[in-house]
UniProtKB/TrEMBL annotation, chains A, B:
A Pfam family reported for this protein in Swiss-Prot or TrEMBL: ADH_zinc_N
Gene3D superfamilies named in the record: Medium-chain alcohol dehydrogenases, catalytic domain, NAD(P)-binding Rossmann-like Domain
Entry protein name: NADP-dependent oxidoreductase
Boundaries of every Enoyl reductase (ER) domain copy: 22-334
Key words, A-Z: Oxidoreductase
Signal sequence region: none
Any one GO molecular function term: oxidoreductase activity, acting on the CH-CH group of donors, NAD or NADP as acceptor
Organism: Cryobacterium adonitolivorans
Keyword Oxidoreductase: yes
TM annotation in the entry: none
Length: 346, 346
């Protein structure tokens, strides 16, 4: 029987505007003996994602708000160290949604066993092989109905989702892929590493002007991670019949003075545009097709990705806030490396 | 050979903000002899529509701007008084797009012969049997993908398009149909004549509050004729998976201080909404199905409609401005009754 504790980050207060450390608390839980059907998992990595900011508010949304005093939920990947379930063997690599804790002990049904790929870190199951890339994949192909020859604009393009959108668009035959990012380093990464045809820094120049220069003939598809002024600029750049997949609005999440009004809405009528919002949870049926396609690209070396790794469960809040501020390149994860300190004593 | 003249209203200047009479001029044109293949039509009615305001601006749009110094185009219905084309007989009732003139003489290919229905004014071919109702029909059924059991909100609901949307939604099995209008008289008409389940005056109360009261469980479909604050209110009222057909933004057309920013855009993401703009010109393939369905409803007495008729081609500009101000109930048309003064002298 394994003994041990689980360190967990809990939501202590609902933030107004930007979250602070005071909105969270740390709990160290003594783990009881495994019940029948349960497994114990020591996490390798936990995921911090923009959508989590929305769940901190007590408002109606597609998923319920986080509960005050409970542990922050979210994607994580770890290894089974003890099992009282026939379906999951000790040593299995698993993905789950139990979030911000170093050790998790729950019914086996809450975990999905994933294959281990040589030379690929387990964190890839939170990003390029997980929900993040699935978000990019379904958003571009299903929601925005991308077709070969389209010119595509992606905002927040150096982020975890955006960098995948650009690469998938290129692999699927986009005529031109354009990205925006918030630092010159990220802008360079977009064209030099991720294969974007053009990129610009939205903090150092006028958005609409830079977009018009990057896409002189206009855009067919816009993948929106940012909202606000970015969405207004895209509405001004669309060709007739353009389509937008609205994935998130990170620019709006911590505003306390009301959202940025989006201009140019009349272009939706005059240019016959379609704007569709989505959350990946409604597109899980595409997971098998995604896995097959992404696996093939991945094996062929057609997909590159970055991760920003923050070390230690105690730094989860800092990692989350840094991600909201755009300090990450690619997927932001927290390494919760307690495996060596957990003692298996059967 | 017929002799005669044609009185025509031309665009003299591009308006800034609200158009004025000074932006238009009147020309009286001597009509030449008919050329082979031409017909001469004396108009019964001409149509004034919101989209015409957009065409007065010199901007890229789905249809080219009106040309300065040329006659205002648009829908009209009239009778053939002389024909040099075998395909169109004298006496035929025809619909065309030659716009603001009392007599028109062009190639027969520019006219569509329509059947005459007892007790139905020819103006119906500009509204309930024409492009106006087709706009309502395709916007609701094709663009917003209405389905039985939906709760539908229509803005500008007492207008030509809006009053049709509400009735079609009801006939197609809406759970609830809600409309907004700008006078108490129109609000009463919505529930008492057009069969809306609830209606409110957006000028005398808070839009979002009134919409929430009228649709306590939220809306599935929004048909937008108004834009601006109406669209913001709808975004706040949508259920998950809601769909909007964006037909026009009459509230925004004459603004000179920039468009009203639309709030709540993040709801498009969190509620998985789809907003689709459209113009009826891209949906003409549905005209036969529309004609069959609307003809059946019409014959069964299931559709009611109003017209606001302004008399005299010389009052076309006033009619147009009145329509933009919401002075019409149902379809606004101009009666261009010169038939008795045109002399056929063959």
């Amino acid at each position: 029987m394994t003994t041990g504790t689980s360190t967990q980050i809990q939501l202590a207060a609902r933030p107004t505007g930007w979250p602070t450390a005071a909105d969270f608390s740390t709990a160290v839980i003594d783990l009881p003996d495994l019940a029948a059907g349960q497994v114990r998992v020591v996490n390798d990595f936990i995921s911090v994602d923009p959508y989590m900011r929305g769940r901190m508010n007590d408002v109606k949304s597609y998923i319920p708000p986080f509960v005050l005093g409970e542990t922050m939920g979210g994607g994580a990947v770890g290894r089974v160290v003890e099992s009282a379930a026939e379906s999951v063997a000790v040593g299995s690599l698993v993905v789950h949604q139990y979030g911000w804790r170093d050790v998790v002990q729950e019914d086996a049904a809450g975990f999905r066993v994933v294959p281990e790929i040589p030379n690929v870190p387990s964190s890839a199951y939170l990003g390029v092989l997980g929900m993040t890339a699935l978000t990019a994949y379904v958003g571009l192909l299903e929601v925005a109905r991308f077709k070969e020859g389209d010119t595509v604009f992606v905002s927040g393009a150096a982020g975890a989702v955006g960098s995948m959108v650009g690469q998938i668009a290129r692999l699927k035959g986009a005529a031109r892929v354009i990205g925006s990012a918030g630092t010159d380093e990220k802008v360079a990464l977009l064209t030099e590493k991720y294969g974007f045809d053009a990129a610009f820094n939205y903090k150092t120049g006028d958005l609409a002007t830079q977009l018009a220069e990057a896409a002189p003939e206009g855009i067919d598809v816009y993948f929106d991670n940012v909202g606000g002024d970015h969405l207004s600029a895209a509405l001004g750049a669309f060709k007739d019949g353009g389509r937008a997949a609205l994935c998130g609005a990170i620019s709006q999440m911590n505003r306390t003075d009301g959202p940025t009004g989006v201009q140019n809405m009349v272009n939706i009528v005059t240019r016959g545009l379609t704007l569709t919002g989505f959350t990946v949870g409604n597109y899980l049926a595409h997971f098998p097709a995604f896995t097959e396609q992404m696996g093939a690209w991945f094996a062929a070396g057609d997909i590159v990705f970055d991760e920003t790794v923050v070390d230690g469960i105690e730094n989860s809040v800092d990692a989350f806030l840094g991600m909201l501020r755009g300090e990450n390149t690619g997927k932001m994860v927290v390494k919760t490396s307690v495996l060596e300190s957990t003692t298996a004593a059967s």
